[in-house]
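Q: Predict the assembly, please.
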Amino acid sequence: MSASVDAPGLAAGTDLWRTVARTVRRNAWTLGLLGLLVVLLGVTHAIQPSYGAAGVESLAKAALPVALVAVGQAIVVIAGGIDLSVASMMALTNVTAAALMKGTSDEAAVLVVVAVLVLGIALGAINGTLVVLTRVPDIVVTLAMSFVWAGAALLVLSTPGGAAAQWLRDLYNGTVGSEWLPKALVLIVVAAALAWVPLRRTRMGLVFYAIGSDKLAAFRSGVDIRRTKVASYALCGLFSAMGGLAITMATGTGIPVPGPYTLASVAAVVLGGVSLAGGRGGLVGVVLAVFVLRLVRADLVFLGIDPNFTTVIEGLTMVIVVMVGAMLAMRSRRG
Amino acid sequence: MTGTSTTAGDSGPRWASAAALRRVVRDQPVLPLLALLVALVVAMQLVQPGTVSPAWIGTSIKLAIPLAILAACQTLTMLTGGIDLSVAFVASMSAYLIATQAPIHGPVLGVMLALLACALAGLGNGIGVGIFRVHPLIMTLGTGLVVVGLMTVYQVEVVSQGAKVPAEITWIGGANSFGVVPNALLLFVPLAALILWVLRRWGFGRLLFAIGDNEGAARLAGVRVWAVHLTLYVISALLAGIAGLVVAGVTNVATVTLAERYLLPSVAAAVIGGTSIFGGRGGYAGSIVGALILTVLTSLLTVMRMPEGVRLVLFGAMIAAVAAAYTRITEER
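A: Predicted assembly structure:
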């Protein structure tokens, strides 16, 4: 701005360069993940030359439930909480959808989907309300509620069963337009965008970041902390319900046992650059992190490594990435 | 944070006022918890008259001991504001290593090997949390995944050899003396006494409270916080290893996922016992009672022939209710 006296063209160039540099710096973590994903895709193609459109489709399918629930988890974590009951909520919504869809027409199944999404919002809102009313730490409340929702899932269906409407299953299988664009990927992008755009562009999204980074400051700026907190949990419930529906789509049945999604969602949130302390990070990185984790797992299979080692590698990846992130953060604070 | 102990003499007349009650609950959380435990036992007797017998009490204690030891891991780490989610995996590892190594090297060396592996896992946690400042939730989860993976690989390696829990371990974990007294108490009572003593009287115990209360202040006061974390997580993993040994003894089988079902209950027992997940407040006595409460509650719900779903719902509701009651009573405002 100040150096634009005798060389305006050059200054405009440096301004643009600065903007780019700033954007890169601000989104360094996300861009790094994107780079990692691209490299991993290249590596995958190198070790398994037949890896192509079909591979991408199965990757997107495997990532779908985790990505959805990780987006929900990220919203709660950004708002300063954590939800350990997401896997149980997924199980409950999954069995509810499957049980209600058994023997219903395709039109009624639409109603079921809407009802299950509303159910997810309600479950999340109950979690949030309990956190706010009891003032018990989030982690404890949602830990207790994980038992409650898992129990409720067993009451809906005591054994795996139910059905899924055909159109719902078609929504999940196959590709649209190009064979390189799996439907599951479209679902992830649409769902993430539905959450991401309001989160970045509206007051509602801003207050999530506000209460996550400094509750007191947010309160003094006129934010209704309790309502915001409940809203963040309700959104997480909504995304957990989408994750539950994704399981229904994928399996065509309801499984009343929570899968390993809670830990996976927390891992993706942390890898995705969202601070567990709240108030920092975005959803794009989280979705990318889910893909990176899934692709690493696929690569290990292609490499013929004992599939049991995948858990070891995943644990190490998580820990090492977080350590590197912590060290980078420390260095940038010093510098 | 001095853990003032009101003597029985002067707490008597002050029971009358609500503020005094509040103080008692805050300083002696074990008392109302014991009342809850007794209420559950009475409910048990009412639901199924004749259930409560010395043998039943012995069995309940035997089932509660592994949970109580794992709750110690959570209590100690939660006092510093951390958590140890690797304990269930580490405990399973210890059980499986004992069951596969003891037949070759004898029980003593087998147990030593298992505990050595546990200490290594704990060292990993400690380095991550203490030196690299990784959030304990993530670090211990990562370590847990690594441990599970390694054990699954190891399982494939030794599958031909088979796993057998040595008789000595079954004797400690599963058998009774004089008909009703579980032998596991021989292990647990000294262990619990040591933990309580360390927390109350040792410098290390006070350091845990200090770090949980205000880490910055502790550091400024000259505490080497990283060293405390390192020691703490190694101790936690060793305790988990001992818990795994007891679980193997109780069930007389060893699998690589043996103790996983204890993970969330161990956190719940510590929370019910009055230890704050934010650190600085709590103690081990409450966690022991918490473990007993969860065990009795589970058997009560089983006796009432509740479906699994209802059992889980009530289990979760109970944890939430106790935690909420705690916060309500002990909150200073």
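The mean pLDDT of chain B is 84. Residues 52-330 of chain B form a domain with the ABC transporter involved in vitamin B12 uptake, BtuC fold (CATH 1.10.3470).
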